[in-house]
Amino acid sequence: MSSQTTFEIEDKFMAPFFIKQKISIEKGDGIYVWDEEGHRYIDFTSGWGVTCVGHAQPVITEALLKQSGKILQNPNSGLTYSPARAELLLLMQKVLPSHLSRIFFANSGAEANDAAIKLARKVTGRMDVISTHKSFHGRTISTASATGQAAHREKFNPLMPNYRFVTYGDLKDLEETLDENVAAFILEPIQGEGGVHIPSGEYLKKAENLCRKNGTLLIADEVQTGFCRTGPMFVTESLGVQADFLTMAKGIAGGFPFGAFAMSETVAEKLEIGDHGGTYCGNPLGCAVAHAVIKYLVDHNISTNVDRMGRLAMKKMGQFQQDFPNTINDVRGKGLLLLIEFKEEDTATRVSDECLQQKLFVRQTQGDGIRIFPALNIKEDEMEEGLEILRSAIETVVNQKR
Ligand SMILES: Cc1ncc(COP(=O)(O)O)c(C=O)c1O
């Protein structure tokens, strides 16, 4: 098939939710992808924080082949046992914060969050949920209701009731909003989609303490930050924060659609047979892939690479800001979750377009930002190659605007 044919078919038959980029990707390798005509691009989005160990990663191919040759889905799904699921559970026990001893599986981040919210209500017998402005928790009706961005909520009224919002990073606001009706506080340890906002070091721990004092469960949404995206395996653990639920997806299976949520024993004790389920329930194929990905992250000490590459990128981005002070407002991020904030949305759009012209995928975020979140095993020369294109794209746009 040619790109042109692919465009025509997708434009005609796919639901119209996206302004599409006219590029049809056929294959990938590491941080690189190729379109149907054989043009090579660098992917600094890792498919929106998903392909954390790179495209066409051999350990994933091997796990897919091996497991699919055995079994994809168990008879009676979660009612029967699976060695692939057991192996994944064992490995997750090693990488998760130790108090999160019970795990269940989902197919996406939204689904994991949805389940955590639902179960928090059951466990506490309370109805209200607090979330933060600018947060993103998913696109199901309950997670859209928990998302603190008008664009993702307003069109879908009536939303789920009993959601309240506080300012991200503001403990006083949280303290004043918590009361005896609040079942859960759902929180991203670093806001990703909302524009890469990093709260002060003590915010998460103090928020945990406020929740605990109030009998409110803390749901740490680590869908984007989990699995070494910002350096540590999980942000909450690195800060000594004990969430009651921790939700995961994206990087967990390196591109295979999969998700999970973990909970403390205290929470699990209050749950009963039938409180949750689903058709897939930790489908053996997903489990085998997630196992391969997490093992890769651990065996290759990916955390260290993320720290190193993140520092390198921040240094270069800082240089961009110095070189283009009238164009760039801020550069920020942690590990490999990074953002350049431009002074004008139009500049971000044009830089993003120019990057694509120069064969680099970046993600425009919140209008004026460009988010960079490449594969976590990116090499130094690859990082430099991508950042060089980014710099050149900024320079081109600045010169055009003169
Ligand atoms: C923090 C966070 N939570 C939840 C989600 C939703 O995940 P999914 O798209 O897999 O449903 C996202 C997606 O970007 C996210 O960034």
Tell me the layout of helices and strands.
Elements: H1 3-13, E1 25-29, E2 32-35, E3 40-43, H2 46-49, H3 58-68, H4 83-95, E4 102-106, H5 109-124, E5 128-132, H6 141-145, E6 163-166, H7 171-177, E7 182-187, H8 203-214, E8 217-221, H9 235-238, E9 245-248, E10 259-263, H10 265-268, H11 284-299, H12 302-323, E11 328-334, E12 337-342, H13 345-357, E13 360-361, E14 363-365, E15 369-372, H14 380-401
Parallel strand pairs: 3-13, 5-6, 5-7, 7-8, 8-9
Antiparallel strand pairs: 1-2, 2-3, 4-10, 9-10, 11-12, 12-15, 14-15
Helix pairs in contact: 3-11, 4-11, 12-14, 13-14
The structure holds pyridoxal-5'-phosphate.
Q: Mind explaining what this structure looks like?
A:
The chain folds into two domains: 59-299, 3-Layer(aba) Sandwich (Aspartate Aminotransferase, domain 2); 302-339 and 353-371, no CATH class. Helix content is 40%, strand content 17%. It contains 14 helices and 15 strands. A seven-stranded mixed β-sheet has the order 4-10-9-8-7-5-6, with helices on both faces. Strands 1-2-3-13 form a four-stranded mixed β-sheet. The structure holds pyridoxal-5'-phosphate (PLP). The site of pyridoxal-5'-phosphate has 14 residues, from α5. Pyridoxal-5'-phosphate binds at residues 108-110, 113, 136-138, 188, 192-193, 221, 223-224, 249.
